[in-house]
């Protein structure tokens, strides 16, 4: 546990020292969201209807642009090979990378979501459900993303391939997350959507480390 905590701290420190990771994600999300009120008008009724989808798609794309940092630098400088020789199982290393990725991408977007929901004229009563949907759902974006990042490890122009692989896998999370907020706006029960969203995140958490390790080891064989 001490080794895992030390690696977790090291990974977070590396992300912050590298710089630009959180800034790039938040900046992209801000620009993406602000394009819609500028184009449709701040008082547009369509803006309110589209707000759940806009916020969720913006979150998805913002996380997507940061997926290539999972293993790229560690693979290029040999750190990934050294980590495989450490006392930590590779599955634990991948799990820590998943958590640190979410903490520096999905979590900042979740915390900022009420501000952008206000800009998009989302009803105030739905702010809590928007926040909860992103808090529950955005981890799945990082967990599923690590699978795509490991499958494309060592491939040139891997960023484009990551997007092609991961976007179809993101659809359940996007559908349930958006639906949860839409149901809250309509005043209907959000329980089914919340349960499915939570199940998607738990399922991705359970399988992602093992699939990623299999993909990484397959890459080493070649």
Overview of the molecule:
By secondary structure, the chain is mostly helical. 82% of the residues lie in helices and 0% in strands. The protein has one domain (2-221). It is elongated.
H/E series: HHHHHHHHHH
The geometry reads as elongated
Instruction: List low-pLDDT spans.
Output: none
Number of domains: 1
The quaternary structure here is: single chain
- Helix amount, in percent? over 70%
- Radius of gyration (CA) equals 18 Å
Distance between the termini: 32 Å
Q: Counting H and I runs of at least 4 residues, what is the number of helices?
A: 10
Structural class: mainly alpha
Tell me how many strands there are.
Answer: 0
The main pleated sheet reads as: none
């Amino acid at each position: 546990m001490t080794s895992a905590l030390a690696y977790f701290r090291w990974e977070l420190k590396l992300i912050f020292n590298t710089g630009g990771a959180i800034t790039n994600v938040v900046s992209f999300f801000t620009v993406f969201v602000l394009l819609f009120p500028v184009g449709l008008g701040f008082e547009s009724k369509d803006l309110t209807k589209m707000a759940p989808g806009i916020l969720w798609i913006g979150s998805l794309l913002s996380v997507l642009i940061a997926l290539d940092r999972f293993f790229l630098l560690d693979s290029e400088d040999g750190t990934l090979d050294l980590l495989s020789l450490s006392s930590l199982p590779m599955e634990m290393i991948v799990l820590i990378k998943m958590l640190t990725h979410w903490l520096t991408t999905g979590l900042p977007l979740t915390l900022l979501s009420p501000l952008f929901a206000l800009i998009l004229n989302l009803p105030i009563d739905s702010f809590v459900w928007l926040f909860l949907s992103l808090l529950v759902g955005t981890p799945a974006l990082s967990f599923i993303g690590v699978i795509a990042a490991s499958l494309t490890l060592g491939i040139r122009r891997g960023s484009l391939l990551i997007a092609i692989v991961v976007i179809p896998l993101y659809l359940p999370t996007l559908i349930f997350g958006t639906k949860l907020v839409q149901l809250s706006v309509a005043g209907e029960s959000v329980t089914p959507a919340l349960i499915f969203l939570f199940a998607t995140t738990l399922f991705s958490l359970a399988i992602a480390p093992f699939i990623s390790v299999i993909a990484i080891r397959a890459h080493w064989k070649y």
